[in-house]
Amino acid sequence: MSASPILITGGAQRLGRHCAERLAEDGHPVIISYRREREALAALRERGIVTLEADFSTEAGILDFIARLKSETSSLRAIVHNASDWAPDSAGDQAGATFERLFRIHMQAPYLVNLHCRELLDACGEPQRDIVHITDYVVQKGSRKHAAYAATKAGLESLTLSFAAMYAPSIQVNGIAPALIMLNEGDDEAYIERARAKSAMGMVPGPGVFYQSLRYLLDNRYVTGITLPLDGGRHLR
Q1: What is the pLDDT of residues 112-147, one digit of tens each?
Q2: Full strand arrangement of the beta sheet holding 129-134
């Protein structure tokens, strides 16, 4: 019997891509969703990773993705909700549209995928099945410029508790709340120093620590309903 795949939404770049590649290296079948075609997808496909286009900004797009996912696989070992949009707050007439888009990506998509794909998790032959929500450190402090982002990520943390209670004991549901893990191309030294100074650890650790956190949740049979902080001790500053 072949192993059930792990689904990572938003898996074409940065943390999602790193985890998809590491999981594939560790022998897990992997399915990712992606928002738009990009060069990195060719390398992922060469590794045998299945790629499914998805538009999580509308309910119709979410439901279409779920239908195509079910056509692709009859079971899942885990679902990692990594799809995200770091959009700043909009002014005027665009404010509502921005909030609605972030709500759909960060809350409605995980909510509907979790509900509609429970049967795929139940069909997995392994003793452990997982759902992992990727939230954000900013939930703990709010944001002056990304209030909609922070609020919808906070909603995702609440969904972690609700689905953990709903799906226990057969499916474990947890979250990871990272702060800055990776730099972007073009970040200058002044920005990097400010970023390092925000945490007690004084570093930008790179994606490996994120994968370690994900593996901890995927490998531990006695953890559910928690959000694992991954912030280098920012609360100590």
Answers
A1: 999 999 999 999 999 999 999 999 999 999 999 999
A2: 50-53, 30-34, 6-8, 78-81, 129-134, 171-178, 227-230
Which whole-number Å values give the CA distances from 49 to 42, 137, 193, in the listed order? 10, 29, 36
Compute the C-alpha angle 188/138/210, nearest 5°. 70
Q: Which residues contact 219 (CB under 8 A, 6 or more apart)?
A: none
| 6/121 Cα distance (integer angstroms) | 10
Q: Is 216 a catalytic residue?
A: no
Helix 109-116, helix 147-167: angle, nearest 10: 20
Active-site annotation holder among 149, 191, 211, 222: 149
Query: Which residue stretches of the chain are H helix?
Result: 14-25, 40-46, 59-72, 95-103, 109-116, 118-122, 147-167, 189-197, 208-219
| Residues 22, 31, 159: CA angle, nearest 5 degrees | 95
Peptide bond into 169 cis (omega under 30): yes
Q: How far is CA 137 from CA 147, 153, 177, 199, in A?
A: 13, 9, 5, 11
**pLDDT tens track for 34-69:** 999 998 899 999 999 999 999 999 999 999 999 999
- Looking only at the bridges linking them, the beta strands covering 50-53 and 129-134 are unpaired
Whole-model pTM above 0.90? Answer: yes
The Cα-based distances of 89 to 93, 178, 231 in angstroms read 11, 21, 23
